[in-house]
C-alpha cells in the first residue's frame, strides 16, 4: 500500500551517485580577478542567486542536479547578490553581462562564453565549453 506513496523514480536514483556540488562562495570584488585567472585553466561557473526569489531557489535545486555531472571539471561560484551587492555589480561591469537573477555565467579564457537567466539558464550547453 505504501509503495506507491513513497515511490522514487529512476532520475532520483541516478542523482544519488553524483557527488555533491561544491560551491565556492563569491563574496567580494577581489575574488573576480582570481576567477578570471582560473578561467584560463578550466571553466568557471558563476551562479547569481537571490534568496528572496522563489524562482531563484527553484532553479538552484534543478541546477545543482544537472551541474553534478561536471563535478571536478569546472569550478562553481555562488553569489548571494542580496548579501554581496557590490560583488554582483562588479560581475556585471567586469564581464559586460546585464544583471539578472537568477543568472548563470560561464567564463573561459577570461571571457564570458555563455550566460542566461531564470529557467533558461537550465538549458545552457555547458558540456561544449569544458
Features:
130 residues, alpha/beta, Glutaredoxin, five-stranded mixed sheet, 4 helices, 5 strands, disordered N terminus
Description:
With 130 residues, the protein is of the alpha/beta class. The protein has one domain: 3-Layer(aba) Sandwich (Glutaredoxin). The protein has four helices and five strands, in the order αβαβαβαββ. It has helices spanning 10-16, 31-38, 54-67, 85-95; strands at residues 23-25, 43-49, 74-80, 103-108, 111-117. A hairpin with a 2-residue loop joins strand 4 and strand 5. It is globular and about 35 Å long.
Question: How would the blueprint of this fold be written?
Answer:
Blueprint: H1 10-16, E1 23-25, H2 31-38, E2 43-49, H3 54-67, E3 74-80, H4 85-95, E4 103-108, E5 111-117
Parallel strand pairs: 1-3, 2-3
Antiparallel strand pairs: 2-4, 4-5
- Domains, number: 1
According to DSSP, the number of beta strands is 5
Spans of at least 5 consecutive residues with low confidence: 1-18
The CATH superfamily is known as: Glutaredoxin
Rg, rounded, reads: 16 Å
Any guess at the CATH architecture?
A: 3-Layer(aba) Sandwich
Please bin the fraction of helical residues: 25-40%
Assign the CATH class: Alpha Beta
Order of helices and strands: HEHEHEHEE
Mean pLDDT: 85
Question: Structural class given helices, strands, pairing?
Answer: alpha/beta
Strand order across the biggest sheet?
1-3-2-4-5
What is the third-level CATH name, the topology? Glutaredoxin
End-to-end separation in angstroms reads: 46 Å
Count helical runs.
4
Shape: globular
Could you give a short account of the major beta sheet?
5 strands, mixed
What percentage of amino acids are in beta strands?
15-25%
